[in-house]
Design goal:
InterPro entries: TNP-like_RNaseH_N (IPR048365). This protein has 88 residues and is an alpha+beta fold. It has one domain. The protein is 17% helix and 28% strand. It has one helix spanning 65-79; strands at 2-5, 11-12, 17-18, 38-45, 52-60. The chain has a 3-stranded antiparallel beta sheet with strand order 1-4-5, with helices on one face. Strands 2-3 form a two-stranded antiparallel sheet. A hairpin with a 4-residue loop joins strand 2 and strand 3. The model has no long low-confidence stretch (mean pLDDT 81).
């Protein structure tokens, strides 16, 4: 997992606005959501080879450790039924 600062900016691509907080859990398309200033990224890293795979990224204004734990558990629960062997 990794967290990184991002530029606060909202952009409209003709269909939807990109830039507000988005944790991926059926958030409303409300224009009142603030712009995200941080991205929390979850990666799979191969132990026997040299590759990394992004499995999710979440735009936020800062996450607590409990929120990060919930997001990690959700991602792990999606990997297990697809036969992805997560060691640690």
């Amino acid at each position: 997992m990794d967290g990184m600062s991002i530029r606060q900016q909202a952009e409209f691509d003709g269909k939807e606005v990109h830039g507000p907080i988005n944790l991926g859990f059926n958030e409303s398309d409300d224009d009142s959501l603030p712009s995200a200033k941080e991205a929390f990224v979850l990666l799979l890293v191969c132990m026997k080879s040299h590759w990394k795979l992004t499995i999710g990224y979440f735009l936020s204004n800062g996450l607590s450790s409990c929120q990060k734990q919930t997001l990690m558990q959700h991602c792990l629960s999606l990997l297990y039924p697809n036969k992805v062997n997560v060691v640690c």
